Amino acid sequence: MSATAVIVAVWTYMATSSFWEAFAWMIVTLLVVQVGYFVLVVRLIFRRAHHAATSQDPVDAVPPLHRDGVWF
To answer: In whole angstroms, what is the distance from residue 8 CA to residue 33 CA?
Structure first.
């Protein structure tokens, strides 16, 4: 994520010679990457929950959401 933002900032600065425009594009890049990451994680969670809800397996495929007392 950081490497992508730096590459976009350097590329924009080389194209426009404007520090502020490069900074703005870097912020936009960071926001887009972070939102995309969040959406993909939420999608993975809902897909797993949907798969577990529609499964005909008698064993519960989704582990409990509480701690079982085991400490590592």
So the answer is: 12
Quick check: 38 and 28 in contact, CB under 8 A? no
Find where tokens 């809902």 sit. 46
Confidence (pLDDT) at 66: 64
Interval 34-67: pLDDT, tens? 999 999 999 988 887 766 667 666 665 556 666 6
Is 55:61 a contact under the CB 8 Å cutoff? yes
Q: Which two tokens stand for residue 12?
A: 């924009």
Find the Cα–Cα–Cα–Cα dihedral 53, 59, 60, 62, rounded to 10°.
-90
